[in-house]
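Incident review: delayed structure delivery

Summary: a single-chain prediction request sat in the queue longer than the usual turnaround. Root cause was a stuck worker, restarted by the on-call engineer. No data loss occurred. The affected request and its eventual output are reproduced below so the record is complete for anyone auditing the incident later.

Affected input:
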Amino acid sequence: AQNAARLARIVDDVLDVSRARQAPGPQAVSLALDRAVADICTDWERQASRAGRITTNLTLPDLAVLFEQDHLRRVLVNLLDNAERHASGAGFEIRVDTALADEALARLSVWTPGPPIEQGVQRHLFEPFFSSQSRSTGLGLYLCRELCERHSAAIGYQRSQRADMPGNEFFVLFRPVAHDAAGVTPAATIEP
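Output delivered after worker restart:
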């Protein structure tokens, strides 16, 4: 039964990747980043009684990015699930932050304390069917990368510290939506 369920998840993930590639490019949908992130985090915490697991520091209340709401939900939920799965310690805390990375980029990060990800694993994090767990499909981070690229965003990983505690951080870089006289101007692709 477990193997059948795992195969069903693999099929669903492969279909999701296929749909993301075949669908036309994203519509010029301006999404308020902080509001969307707050809603997704709240929904995630409500599921499976995860109250108090996330601390947010959302500093871009007026910033909009070009990203479909459902796709951002898919990316952020995957990052939150992974953070919960790989966090160290019983009382771990997941940090979700938004900030300006520089003048031209907005950054969404998901951080949790834990041991470093091995260098050999880091090289393959966003490749299809790669997983460090036997029960994983190995498509979650790959699908996140595909969705980010589809929306001219970039996803990456780095080791970082919060309050002198080492941890793992996954981040998404977005170009803020530029508004001109004709409306929304799509952003150029970002390299992580």
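Verification: The radius of gyration is 17 Å.
Action items: add queue-age alerting; document worker restart procedure.
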